[in-house]
Input
Amino acid sequence: MKRYGGFAAVDGISFEVAPGESFGLLGPNGAGKSTTMRMVGAVSTRTAGELSILGLDPDAYGPEIRSQLGVVPQSDNLDTELRVRENLLVYGRYFGLPGRLVAKRADELLAFAQLEDKGKAKVDSLSGGMKRRLTIARALINDPRVLLLDEPTTGLDPQARHILWDRLFRLKEQGTTLLLTTHYMDEAEQLCDRLVVVDTGTIMAEGTPAELIRRYSSREVLEVRFGSDRNSEVAKRLEGIGDRMEVLPDRILVYSRDGEAELVRITEAGLHPITSLVRRSSLEDVFLRLTGRSLIE
Amino acid sequence: MTEALSTEMRSDTARAIAAGRRPRRWGAWYVALHRFRVMKSYTGTVVVAGIGNPLVYLYALGLGLATIVDANAGDQALGGVSYLVFVAPALLASAAITVASEEFTYPIMLGYKWNPTFTGMSASPLRPTQIVDGIVISVTIRMLVNLVLFFALIVLFGAAPSAVAVLMVVAGLLGGLAFGTALMAYSSTLEEDTGQLAMVMRFVVLPMTLFSGTFFPLSVFPVWLQWIGWVSPLWHSTELARVFSYGYAEPIWLTVMHVAYLLVLAAAGWVWARRIAVRRLGR
Output
């Protein structure tokens, strides 16, 4: 529970993450994800509630907890007054690690982040994806038990995202506990063993991506467009088609086990959508079902 | 939770407790080391300003202006010392204020906001109070270097007659920190710089230099203007530096007052800056 004045940014978010697990907080901007992450990161203090990280209370054991965490914040806070490799060296020292060990790890991590030849570069000369990878490398300098990632790929182009996911997946394989927030359902599906859907500071649902889709959505989704003006009007005539329907401003989503079959029924009813698309259900649909809104607005 | 998992967690807890020891004890020094690494990028400026500024001021005021002052003021106007000897301790004390207003303003805004390295530090084992302490340590050391250089030049100018003249470095340091920690606390409260820091330079630092008995004794002012000197840390550090430099005659209680006032101010600003850091970084 976290309150700012009268506003409760986080109100009743409760979850448990096991060592080695990869756990996600999925929700739109302003849902309370980052605040939760800062509390788990033993930085932001709780207004109320219980929190235990690695079996310790962050109010009393902040430095101890943080010594075992790697934190990748939402916006990069690399030190632009220092060079790329220096960023790793200096950060490693904050953990009280010996200089020689930090230097060795810095070189390993530069390789891991595919930045070997950028060691002496200025931070500002790096691309967005490189900065992100450097931030992750910095978060790993203390060989953390838990890695906290707040919106790790927001603002990156598709290629940079895939490189990053690959790196994170390797960490997961090595047994690092990952706790990440995202508003991208594909990211959550790629990286999370288990996740909670968060909105307005509370948990809406919890489970594995597959479970959530099974519980809150159908196997397939048929997307049909009739033009922005006609969608809601046509929707009335589609009653009874599919298990359920969502009418969005630009399209109608029909939830069903068999999308193609529903499309046939629609055409048989004499309706001809401008475009149609059958796809698998995703976490986006789960979110839409739970909150009546889409993730990215 | 299974048995294996809870065992793993216990070992993680033990590992965390062990890893927290060094940062808990030495954290402030890690921050200071970071500051030094950053300062290294402007070592040139520090050294050139550290030697150049005193030279310029000592020449212009201590030798240039002094020819007029010494010719017109008479022997006893400045307690029997030449203008150079009179103004040198004040220039040294002002140099500390200059360092304070460089290091405790924009670098603080930078760390909280423009390039939020303090946020990065607070995600590591470092505590917000250690961040503040580390900055104070690093600036103290930089200030000390500047003041020692300044003192050496004063000696070269033959303007430090007393045997304990070197203590004026301490006087300058106290003044610089008394003003600097409060300035740091103020800079820490700024969410945005819409010219506040420039205003501080113009309307606090500059008048303070003019009204703190730097270039002429405070006693030439009417009493209703002298209070500016009494509250100004610079006046206290300047007077203290004069006592050490040439045995400026003042009652002993006043000398004790200078030291006490500066210490209290420095400590109060320091505590204030720490409290703001805890609040701002723990949001």
Q: What stands out?
A: Chain B touches chain A through 40 residues (CB under 8 Å). The radius of gyration of chain B is 22 Å. The mean pLDDT of chain B is 91.
